[in-house]
Amino acid sequence: MADIKKILCAVDFSEYSPIVADYARMMAKSSGAKVLVLYVAPSLSQYVGFHVPPSSIESFVGEIVTGAEDTMNAFVKEHFDQLDVEGKVVTGYPAEEILGIAEDEKCDMVVMGTHGRKGIDRILFGSVAEKVVKSSTAPVLTVRPKA
Predict the structure, then answer these.
(1) Maximum distance among all alpha carbons in the chain?
(2) What is the pLDDT of residue 47?
(3) Helix (H, G, I), strand (E, B) or coil at 25
(4) In terms of C-beta density within 10 A (0-12 exposed, 13-18 middle, 19 or more buried), how is residue 131 classed?
(5) C-alpha dist (Å) from residue 95 to 2, 26, 51, 134
(6) What is the pTM of this model?
(7) Class of domain 6-143
(8) Four-CA torsion 56, 68, 34, 113, nearest 10 degrees
(9) Which phi and psi (to 5°) does residue 131 adopt?
(10) What confidence tens digit (pLDDT) does each residue in 49-59 have?
């Protein structure tokens, strides 16, 4: 049996995030693992060349992160009561951040949702979950929202 001591639970605060949290909580309770709940705020650095002053972008990202930290604190309190849990908000590209933090934090498992994008959306946006599954050194449990 695998020894799971730390679980990274990646959320996007969508309506499906509580379902993803349920799976992470269940895994943590059964294994005694610590949970790192992660939200990746979008990086707006790619917009610097669009005649938007960098200071405006930094200010906007700062407001997003502050709001996300408040949301994270409420989310952790609501969904991970009585567990060893830490909430973390970072900015960047979701797949890269999830993979990097899972490795840096020595997570034994990643739990995350999929959005089940199809057609043109999948071509344009790709799949964060797919990238994480293909590149993660730790097992990844993906939770697909109900249609």
Answers:
(1) 55
(2) 55
(3) helix
(4) middle
(5) 24, 24, 28, 10
(6) 0.85
(7) alpha beta
(8) -100
(9) -65, -40
(10) 566 565 665 66
